[in-house]
Write a structure and sequence with these properties.
The complex is a heterodimer. By secondary structure, chain A is mostly helical. Chain A has one domain. Chain A contains eight helices and two strands. Chain A has a two-stranded antiparallel ribbon with strand order 1-2. By secondary structure, chain B is mainly α. Chain B has one domain. Classes of the chains: A mainly alpha, B mainly alpha. Chain A binds chain B through residues 25, 28-29, 32-33, 72-73, 76-77, 80-81, 83-84, 87-88, 103, 106-107, 109-112, 115, 175, 178-184, 186-188, 190-191, 194-195, and chain B through 18-25, 28, 70-74, 76-78, 81, 110-113, 116-117, 120-121, 166-167, 170-175, 177-179, 181-182, 185.
Chain lengths: 202, 191
């Protein structure tokens, strides 16, 4: 642990340069599956952020205890425990969101973003850096899901966060809240994101 | 008849990749060539069927009798991870040609959300039985194979196409997947 990590850089990389959704293409299943509205995207993002943060903390704390041969199963158990916590909390306190997200809540376990950060970052760095890394990546994920959800909701149902801004009988692009719209919206958003991040980084 | 409906629904109407968004990672990741996507589909068919059988039995005969339903996620993912390892070891010993064909794809499958997703969906089927769960798993892996093979054939053609600079790589692939998904939307209402 000799090299010093610039924490500000460490935090920002998850949001811009290594954004999990737009740049790294990690965790695509929940990204496409639950973003039919901004609220669902935000809920999924926050749930993932929580699991990512907790798993990074635990992995970073016990990294010296885990034999390297069984590290992947060990990480999966840690992640699965926190996913179970999230599942139970959502079912008890936000049943509406629990219904909406459905199968994608248990599937947070296999979100490659979380296992990827545990393997490539938390198992090699100290606690503080791992927390910052998890926050950066997690917030990058939340932002991406909320933007995608908002885009699809605005185009598809003419509302944002359930607030309608077009009249009831107005024609909206229903395509965007159907499955194909997820792929198409993400395609154009990632073009846009690449353009913006190339501009700001250079 | 009931089983035929399950099969058609799983392959076309609720296609696991294009309508339910499970298994997107391998769908985008290993679909640059038709041959690799055929290999991946074979591995998924194999693992998904065994994993669904194992997790169905475990759920029915261990988790429910002991009231441990809330441990579903942890148990299933462990079973799948262990199964993948076991399948890899057994295949290596018993059938080297099959291992050679599927080997590289097996480790990737642990984090394939389609496998865990189908295992969870299978126990939630209406009056679920083991036979139904197996048919559901096989039909879903055929749906996965159909989607990824069609997608990779299109991607092979795209290599030669003239694509605008900003759309190269990921965006054009997502757009193609969107159009494919649009085509599958046409099956809505079939069952």
């Amino acid at each position: 642990m000799t090299k010093k990590i610039d924490q500000k850089q460490n935090f920002l990389k998850g949001i811009l340069k290594e954004n999990p959704v737009f740049v790294m293409l990690l965790g695509m299943c929940p990204t496409l599956g639950v973003t039919s509205s901004a609220f669902n995207g935000l809920g999924m993002g926050v749930a993932t952020l929580f699991v990512l943060l907790m798993s990074n903390i635990v992995v970073s704390l016990i990294k010296t205890q885990i034999p390297s041969k069984v590290r992947i199963p060990a990480f999966i158990i840690i992640i699965a425990s926190f996913v179970t916590v999230v599942e139970m909390v959502l079912e008890a306190f936000i049943p509406f969101l629990y219904e909406q997200l459905g199968i994608f809540i248990p599937l947070i376990v296999v979100n490659c973003l979380i296992l990827g950060r545990a393997e490539s970052f938390a198992s090699k760095n100290n606690l503080w850096s791992s927390i910052v890394d998890a926050l950066g990546m997690g917030i990058g994920f939340v932002i991406a899901l909320t933007i995608l959800g908002a885009t699809r909701e605005i185009l598809g149902s003419g509302s944002i966060f359930e607030m309608k801004f077009v009249s009831e009988d107005a024609n909206t692009f229903i395509l965007f809240i159907l499955p194909p719209g997820a792929f198409i919206a993400l395609a154009y958003l990632s073009v846009l994101f690449n353009k913006i991040s190339i501009k700001t980084l250079s | 008849m009931e089983y035929i409906i399950i099969i058609i629904a799983a392959i076309f109407v609720n296609n696991i990749v294009l309508a339910q968004f499970l298994g997107i990672c391998p769908f985008l990741g290993v679909s640059s060539k038709v041959s690799t996507s055929v290999g991946m589909s074979g591995a998924v068919l194999f693992v998904m069927t065994i994993a669904t059988i194992a997790s169905y039995l475990l759920h029915q005969y261990v988790l429910i009798p002991f009231g441990l339903d809330y441990l579903r996620t942890i148990t299933f993912i462990l079973v799948i991870a262990a199964l993948v390892q076991m399948v890899e070891i057994i295949l290596k010993k018993v059938s080297p040609p099959l291992y050679k064909a599927l080997g590289v794809f097996l480790p990737l499958i642990t984090t394939n959300c389609a496998v865990l997703g189908v295992a969870i969906l299978a126990i939630g089927l209406e009056d679920a039985s083991l036979l139904k769960a197996v048919i559901f798993a096989i039909a879903n892996s055929i749906g996965f194979a159909l989607a990824i093979i069609v997608f990779s054939s299109i991607r092979e053609q795209l290599e030669l196409a003239n694509i605008p600079e900003g759309m190269k790589g990921v965006p054009i692939n997502l757009l193609v997947a969107g159009l494919l998904s649009l085509a599958f939307l046409g099956f809505t209402g079939l069952v």
